[in-house]
Batch of 4 targets.
Target 1
Amino acid sequence: MVGMSKAKMENRALPKRFYLEAITAPSGEGWAILLDGRPVKTMAKQKLEIASKTIADAVAAEWREQKEFINPDLMPLTRLANITLDRVKLDRPLLLDDIARYAETDLVCYHAPGTESLGRMQHATFEPLLEWARVAYALDFTVTDSIMPIMQLPETLANARALVEQTTDAELAALAMMVPLLGSYVLSVALWKGRIDVDQALKAARLDETLHAEKYGEDSEAAIAWANKEKDIRASAFFLTHN
């Protein structure tokens, strides 16, 4: 439409905020989100019930933070709560396969040559995590400094899938979001199991880009794209570790 700003055109596709209050309330074995006293429902029309009070409070805060329009892109915890109820129960085997598939090409297994500064940074950052994975969960990953893809041992891949089979529905929803964003099964599992925190995971996932930015300056478009990813990674880490 001639003369309409991009922001106004985008807002036309978003629902207007229709409530004044967003709070939590006990419901079943968990907590519901109430908008002016009415419970929020998932995309599949289920009542949005969350087991963790901490997560429920954070989801309610997302609803309170919406302004004139409701923007789902600014509500990652709400999205994860929806995925937990609507998708995980139906697609659990598929989600497990998708997560385990990242173990086949995990970024922590691909290093620059050790003579390069990046290779030294990667070795110092990744090797302790790989050793932890070997000892704690029998995940014996093969590492290379070649650009050619490598095959991981079948038993390592089987153990990788078996480990994430132990997740609750909420944990699986969080990992399903986090693993593709980090590009790493190992970093995500290390965060899940408390071996690293979210800041360490974010730093480890960006060694190459950080070094490049230090040498040549930061790409503004790449920085914006990463900032958006980082918000979802932090949300999924919060959801993962508070359920």
Target 2
Amino acid sequence: MISEPTAPRTGRARGKACRGDVPRTSHARCEPRDDGVDPIAVLEETSRGRVQELVAIRYGRMLVSPFAYLRGSPAVMAADLATTPRTGLDVQICGDAHLLNFGLFATPERNLIFDVNDFDETLPGPWEWDVKRLAISVVVAGRDHGLPEDQCADAARRCAQIYRGLMASFAGMGQLDVWYSRVEPLAFLEQIDAVSRRALERNLRRAQRHTNLGTLTSLTEMVDGRRRIIDNPPLVVHLDAMDVNLVEHELTGVMRAYRSSVSDEHQVLLDRFDLVDFAHKVVGVGSVGTRCFVALLVDTQTDTPLFLQLKQAIPSVLEPFLEPSRYANHGQRVVVGQRIMQAASDIFLGWTLGPRGRSYYVRQLHDMKGSIRLEELPGPLFAEYAGLCGWALARAHARCGQSAAISGYLGRGEVFDDALVAYALAYADQNERDYAAFRTAVDAGRLPAAPGV
């Protein structure tokens, strides 16, 4: 449950009081894992209920690197985070706040902003779990890209510093100002050197081209005078090519239920599009094997395309360690969490219920969305990017009204920063051991893997 907002002075005092029960230095501890926790068994459990023909693709993508493994195993880290100290200052958390779950996308006003962009695991929970997963991902990704250990540590520290500093700023702001704040990537570009700026500008341009219309020729083709999604097995296949328990005659009810979850004015807009094709599409790393569909709709007047993604929402990996979601439909859980945390959300964001009672959430597949290519970032810029993610995460957490209490707990010094860096470095070592065990399980045939798909 999210803690009740309090006045800044009272909130800071409450946050400071938490230090007595949970010293900031305690966050440095990365205790040896209980022998009863088998990360391979956890992965096997999270694969139950998925499309089994696709599980090998999931594991194959996780084999690429320790960072890819980290992205695909949030359930393993959730079990570990549940054993760490908790301040009790709960907010709406992302639940999977790694570096590549932040990115660029367009607001309804067509402005490009930077924010958290994945909420499959969102729940009310400890703010520190998000910060720890983000800092760990910084170290793991930095190592993957060959950065020296000191630069990885510096980047994790930068993330902590920015989070702490921004949370202090938010603590002194009015709630409306916090709610309306956003991370403008163009303003960030002005703060970095010319060489680094050019690298990030390429990412901005890619995102600006990543639109429904820009995707039309790469994802669809004309067949007998009708626009149709291109099959690309096993990544993109039509429903008649796989057993997904969702057939065409059921789509009308699924889409009707989705329509009722968006606002009235957006229902009016949605009604101006016709559904012309529907296919299953494999996405991401950790999501592979869940049911995910892409729907092609066209403007009834101009044939302008609209691609909607219907993605299965399963219980959050955090749920075994926190209170269960208040929403029976996990698609609604995802959508509500996203609307709370994001500065601006997709106008077509909604949820629906599919066959066999499966929950789905719906959003545009492409709407000026893009992610930063970490491999293009040199050490100093990598640290600044980590800080930018810390900025976005602080803003998302502050929208829950707990900025004063969290800031009071963090304080002005670097005690928490030091602890977070120590934990991130230690857990990155644990992640490498888990990755090695994962590779061994694949080599031994315990887990199926299809690399390169």
Target 3
Amino acid sequence: MEQVVEFPLQIERCCGLDVHQKTVVATVRGTGITECTRTFLTFTPDLESLCYWLESLGVTDVAMESTGIYWKPIFTILDTHFRVILVNARHVKNVPGHKTDKKDSAWIAKLLASGLLKPSFIPQQSIRELRELVRYKKKLINQRVGHVNRLHKVLQDGNIKLASVVSNVRGVSATAMIEAIIQGLTDPEQLYQLAKGMLKNKKTELLKALSGRLTDHHRFMLFAIKTAIKEVDNQIEVIQTRIDLYKQEHRAVVNRLKTVPGISEAIAMNLLGEIGPNVQTFPDEHHLASWAGVCPGNNESAGKKKSERTVKGNKLLKTTLVEAAWSAVHTKNTFYQRKYHALVVRRGPKKAIVAIAHKIIKAVYFILKDQVEYREVDLQRWEARKRQTLEAYYHKRLNELSHQ
């Protein structure tokens, strides 16, 4: 027999939505009305009809799962009329074996009416636009990396070992040499004349590296890949121009974020796109770190702590923080650099870098909350406290050994 779970009502009239690509199932429940369910198409006129229906029933709150991107147009239309919350699908699992669209929407409505749903973070419209831009830019950069890797592959296939001599095949000298190869130039001596700067000092290595066996197919592939790279570069430039408009709007916030070691202007814009210019939604820095997925998880049973692996969070924000952490640990005479070297000995490089990312996101939280610049830790005091801790530890160990 199915178990019926009842909770005390916290909201008088509410609606739960089960969202799909083509349809959305809405269940309304509350005091003074009988629970009712309707199915609407996801075209704009149908979503407006959904809005009118909910208003006629006196609904004040609406909840729905974050189903792909299909929730976005529904949220846009309903957000101006109701308090709409977006919830994680893992948090609203229904009773196993009793799954239908109607029951899913009814279960969401029941949880919402009882105040048992935790809303997901949705930034304001301008920040959502910036988030889409920075994410698309990141996708384009990844595409460009793929094209450059293919360029390496074609050169290696033709036994052109240019990558073994130059540090970057997209540099000025390497680019000029590849363009000449595409035009049909094969003489290593003539290709060497295109070298610039310090690369001219590597004449012997360059002559050997440029002595390959290229065919017309190789030249065609190099031309096609170079064309693709130029197209992606143009797209990135267009996106960056649009991002710069938002950068001017939030210039003060970006400048404050840039005071953190490891955070460049590009990383600051990525952080701004994911978090927004304020952190009022997050109660404290620990909640923000958990949402970013860079803090240890809690898994305790019978008084014993089990796995402490990091929790799942915003993947793009986590990768941005890890990128900032790698830059920070290579910045000389900073707290992050010394802390990393202290952690890496016993925790390994991967866990140590996530720990630094955790500290960076906490610093970002207070910078955005208090609207202040980053203040470097007093390294002398930190070293003194570290020394005292080590002395106390070794004194304790010596006393234990002497007692034994």
Target 4
Amino acid sequence: MNPMTTTALVADDEPLLREHLRLQLATLWPDLQVVAEARNGREAIELFDEHAPAIAFLDVHMPGLNGVEVARAIGGRARVVFVTAYDQYAVQAFEQGAVDYLVKPIDPDRLALTVQRLRQPPAASAAQTDLEPLLDALSQRLQQQAPARQHLQWIRASMGQSVRLIPVEEVVYLRSDEKYTLVAWPGGEALIRKTIRELADELDPDRFVQIHRSVIVALPHISHVTRGANETADVHLRGRKEVLPVSRSFVHLFRQM
């Protein structure tokens, strides 16, 4: 890759919209390289950590983690452009924040203005601390708009010749194990044939948080969190010896703890 090439991530749950934005960007900014395309918020974080692009185009309304939550996980490591379909409140908030925004369907002239802004050096005043109140306000707004949904209540785990029904409220943590997911609860451990990404979208976000691309933990079972080097941390559990890693993309969850 040319060291002068600017890289970008495009995150949208609609494949045609991702392709349309990528083609528009190729026309307006030939030197921009889209290094990754994400279908949802969690994939966006994983691909961002893998490719470290300079710019992230984030759809606001994505399944699992929305674009605002992804922006918070990215922190100040990239310049963020939000893409929104209809939320006028969000548009007004973006106009006052240290980010850019695009409204679907994306107008070529408006995208050209965004490209012009992105090709300029970022302003020193656009600090991440200035972005936090905006992200908080947008997150609250999205929660108010989100329809009520039923969260997972039981996890089925095959144990020998029997099937164990594990109450979700007893689960301490879940950890990805190649093609399986390890479920840990006070009564033992079990492997299930379901990815941690699928489980993350079904669990109650008020009880469970993802702290690593391969780990989800239940908040009531956290004893304390210790800070590590390079913006990482470790989660210690109540009455258990395991120590769970917190990656840089999720350490912001514990900054207020």
